Amino acid sequence: LRARLVAVDGVPHQVFAPEDAGFALQELDLSSLADDARERAIVEHATDEAAAPFDLSRGPLIRGRLLRTGEDEHVLLITQHHIVSDGWSSGVMVREFATLYAAFCEGRPNPLPPLEIQYADYAVWQRGWLQGEELERQTSFWRDHLVGAPALLELPTDRPRPAVQSHVGGTLPFALPDALTAQLRQLAQRQGTTLFMVLLAGWSLLLSRLSGQDDVVVGTPVANRQRREVEDLIGFFVNTLALRVRVGDAVSVSDLLSQVKETTLGAFAHQELPFEQVVEAVQPVRSLSHSPLFQVMLSLNNTPGGDALDLPGLTLSQVQGEHTIAQFDLSLSLNDGGAGLHGGIDYAVALFDRSTVERLVGHFVTLLEAMSASDAQPIA
């Protein structure tokens, strides 16, 4: 979090601020505003804070605003550049903050153990390991996996696709009922798959039905922290995998799940190759109107740190902000909170009306209910 990136002869290098660099925290008092005005001000500050650019060469690449909203209530906005952090890192940071806060409130010294390695150590290891035979092994897998895949998932849209992709987005929150989630877990157990594989099968089947294409590619993020030493590191480890599902090759729900299981395990076994190198290896047809390899995402999130925290004299909980960016046409994101799944779909407003996405969610739930009812049922 003290890193910045400086180009030397065109090559980026990490440069680190001193250990006592501190953290830039802007403090603002909104407590005197009326309720409605205060809520608007919080949204405005959150939007401005998230949209403000970073200077990678000057840093810092993490910053914050503390909004005082009442006598004993504040809203803390933390913004990090993705180059130094990912979703898993946020959970690590919240957990370490909680540990430090409790210790300092009680007058105890820093209880966190020294890190075994730093992110720079991982970067050096990755660069040394991902070359030669290993690089060729990973590259060959992805080239074989994606050769001949359709360049574009041709979903029916409410408006023609713009010549240049727009990233203005909307979000539709939704949840799967506890009973349905339990049935999906049982289906996964019967078929020897994971819950994610069941969701991927259902999502791919829906996309195939809507597009009329029996070969679909879905992107999914992976934490990519396969070594114990990096589990507690803050840094950018996450990678994106392009999972190809040949729906036309499956007859029954069981067939589809078997194929998805094989595909997913193969992809996870080759998850270290950065996505941009996969694109270079596959060399898909490029267009400014859509992202390469896939245009639809699926993520099942189980990153740590999302629960409320009770600290000495302080309760900390997440504030859900409005998501107005769509990196892809559709992104289905679900959180596994135990009993039921909850999350939402980010959608490109240039392509889809909210009512269309609402119907899509209904179709998805219908498919999942039917899949969990009978493994032998024809997917048609």
Please, could you describe this protein's structure?
The protein is an alpha+beta fold and 380 residues long. 36% of the residues lie in helices and 22% in strands. It is built from 9 helices and 13 strands. It has helices spanning 35-51, 87-105, 119-129, 132-146, 178-191, 195-211, 253-268, 275-282, 354-373, and strands at residues 3-8, 11-16, 25-29, 62-70, 73-80, 169-176, 215-222, 239-246, 296-301, 309-311, 314-316, 330-336, 341-348. Strands 6-13-12-9 form a 4-stranded mixed β-sheet. Strand 4 and strand 5 (73-80) form a beta hairpin. Helix 5 crosses helix 6 (195-211) and helix 6 (195-211) crosses helix 9. The mean pLDDT is 93.
Distance between the termini: 51 Å
Order of helices and strands: EEEHEEHHHEHHEEHHEEEEEH
Number of helices: 9
> Average pLDDT value?
93
Q: Tell me about the largest β-sheet.
A: 4 strands, mixed
Main β-sheet, spatial strand arrangement: 6-13-12-9
Total number of beta strands: 13
Backbone structural class: alpha+beta
Morphology call = globular
Low-confidence runs of at least 5 consecutive residues: none
